[in-house]
Specification:
The chain has 8 helices and 14 strands. It is an alpha/beta fold and 241 residues long. The strands form 3 sheets. Strands 1-2-3-4-5-6 form a 6-stranded mixed beta sheet, with helices on one face. Helix 4 packs across helix 8 and helix 5 packs antiparallel against helix 6.
């Protein structure tokens, strides 16, 4: 059974419930409390903690209500901008919920205090919740940091095991690969990925998850060899379409 329950919100946001220890769960980036509460009831889950990747409203809009209704703890990287936070985490910190271990990866770029959460399953793979740092085929806009900072954060994620499943904060996947094919028109991996994503979207299915291996092969931002190349791609993507 897949421990991750994907909850769509606001048209293109993704909220994630992660089930563990039979009936316990953590939630990642609950921008809206209503669908989360419905999912908890449907699956008979007890919410233990909220993991916030960053402070933007579409990722934390539901945290206060969820804390009020469930008594869960709020965890994130920004004490000033995440209201009601109980635990401020830093890079390389380990979180433990009984037998569930979660590694904190600081990924400044989209925001100054962005966090990704990595759940190692074994030595070969795991699960990565990336918020707005890494999208499938793309990355977040540079709102609070420079290109070199975001590039460095993406390189940290690229160093994770290839089979790591990537669960991102938004579904911008089709547009990301339409941009990618313009930049690498002869890349057979990108051509194939774009075809697969078009079929997925036509079928009305979710485009998550991806894997780190897929991103390294087809995500032009993660494939950027220097911060300067990354900066130019990000500039062009900001006005694409």
């Amino acid at each position: 059974m897949n421990p991750v329950i994907t909850i769509p919100a606001f048209g293109d946001n993704y909220i994630y419930l992660y089930r563990y220890d039979q009936n316990k769960a953590i939630i990642i980036d609950p921008g809206d409390s209503t669908p989360v509460l419905k999912a908890l009831e449907k699956h008979s889950l007890h919410l233990i903690a909220i993991l916030a990747t960053h402070h933007h409203w579409d990722h934390i809009g539901g945290v206060s209500e969820l804390k009020k209704k469930t008594g869960c703890k709020i965890i994130g990287g920004d004490k000033q901008r995440i209201r009601g936070i109980d635990c401020v985490v830093e890079d390389s910190q380990a979180l433990t919920f009984k037998d569930l271990n979660i590694n904190v990866i600081a990924t400044s770029g989209h925001t100054r205090t962005g966090i990704c959460y990595h759940i190692p399953q074994n030595q070969e793979d795991g699960i990565l919740f990336t918020g707005d740092t890494l999208f499938i085929g793309g990355c977040g806009r540079l709102l609070e940091c420079d290109a070199k900072t975001m590039w460095s954060s993406l390189q940290k994620l690229a160093a994770l095991p290839d089979n790591t499943k990537v669960y991102c904060g938004h579904d911008y996947t089709l547009e990301n690969y339409e941009f990618a094919i313009e930049n690498e028109p002869h890349n057979a991996s990108i051509q194939q990925r774009l075809s697969e994503i078009k079929q997925t979207v036509q079928q009305g299915k979710s485009t998550v998850p991806s894997t780190i291996a897929q991103e390294k092969a087809t995500n032009v931002f993660m494939r950027s060899k220097t911060p300067e190349i990354f900066a130019e791609l990000r500039r062009r993507k900001d006005t694409f379409g």
